[in-house]
Design goal:
The protein is an all-alpha fold. Helix content is 83%, strand content 1%. The chain is built from 15 helices and 2 strands. Helix 1 packs antiparallel against helix 15 (263-298).
Length: 299
């Protein structure tokens, strides 16, 4: 009997603690709609999350947009070595397809431009070559190659179940496609001038040399080309990153997505991510209630 008396306080305290915290957790989401008696709305209705859904949508959208896809984050994605190498490797593959070590630069250019065209346009060779390279890049659809890789990087950043639900692959793709078009447009409008400035200083030296002789120090030549291509890509990213951020509009997308969700969907989404944590809060209430009941028994 004495044991029952000693244990009853802690047990009752634990039950009260569990029940109280359970009610508190439930009241985060329930009731889902306001309960009115006449013209009066009952206190604590609707639950905190449904009541503050608009504010929640703005806060989550702002946090996701600023933390994951602010200007620095978007720049870090596109300026990363991985993304730069995607561009550089694509161009180098294009160059390797055109270069044969046992021909002269002149014969190679004649083949590309036509003998008559070569003789007529040799004085404007750097511009013509730059134009051909740009056309090659556009035919490769470098913008798509880069943005496809960017989509993979973004998907990794959205590995959290809640974020991946709010910003799914289809949404990311709809954002990335215009950026790919923007990259191609940059190559189309700026590429010729950028590449021509690099080629113009090299053309006269290269024209009558064996391609093979140019590669006596092949690694150095390739590194120089890769470096120039890397500079071109970095220049593009730096001048367009602000535009990229505006294209992403992640904060607006997340805010709109949450605002359009039903209260039931928000509850399910939150519980799918935080069910264990909310369960621990309920259990913590039981532990605290047990301890309070135990100390009351001692007193």
């Amino acid at each position: 009997m004495q044991i029952i008396k000693v244990l009853s306080g802690p047990i009752i305290g634990a039950i009260i603690g569990l029940f109280t915290n359970y009610i508190a957790v439930v009241m985060l989401f329930r009731p889902r709609n306001a309960i009115k008696i006449g013209k009066y709305t009952l206190p604590f209705t609707p639950g905190m999350v449904p009541k503050r859904k608009t504010d929640l949508a703005k806060a989550v959208g702002r946090t996701v947009g600023n933390s994951l896809f602010g200007e620095n984050e978007v720049k870090s994605i596109f300026a990363s070595e991985e993304m730069k190498n995607t561009f550089v490797d694509g161009v180098m593959n294009l160059i390797n397809e055109k270069v044969s070590e046992d021909t002269t630069a002149k014969s190679m250019l004649s083949e590309i431009l036509g003998e008559e065209s070569y003789l007529e346009k040799r004085d404007n060779l750097a511009h013509i070559l730059a134009d051909r390279i740009v056309q090659g890049l556009l035919n490769m659809d470098v913008g798509k190659i880069i943005t496809d890789r960017g989509v993979e990087v973004v998907k990794k950043k959205l590995s959290n179940p809640m974020l991946s639900f709010l910003v799914n692959e289809k949404t990311i793709k709809s954002i990335a496609d215009p950026i790919g078009e923007q990259i191609n447009e940059y190559i189309r409008s700026e590429g010729i001038d950028k590449i021509e400035s690099f080629l113009s200083s090299e053309v006269s030296e290269l024209e009558n040399r064996q391609i093979n002789s140019l590669f006596n120090n092949k690694e150095a030549v390739m590194l120089k080309i890769q470096s120039k291509l890397g500079d071109l890509y970095t220049s593009f990213v730096n001048s367009n990153v602000e535009s990229f951020v505006k294209r992403f509009r992640i904060s607006e997308i997340v805010e709109e997505k949450i605002s359009n969700m039903s209260n039931e969907s928000i509850e399910k989404l939150t519980l799918s991510v935080m069910e264990n944590e909310l369960g621990m809060i309920v259990k913590l209430g039981g532990v605290i209630g047990f301890l309070i009941g135990f100390f009351n028994t001692l007193i």
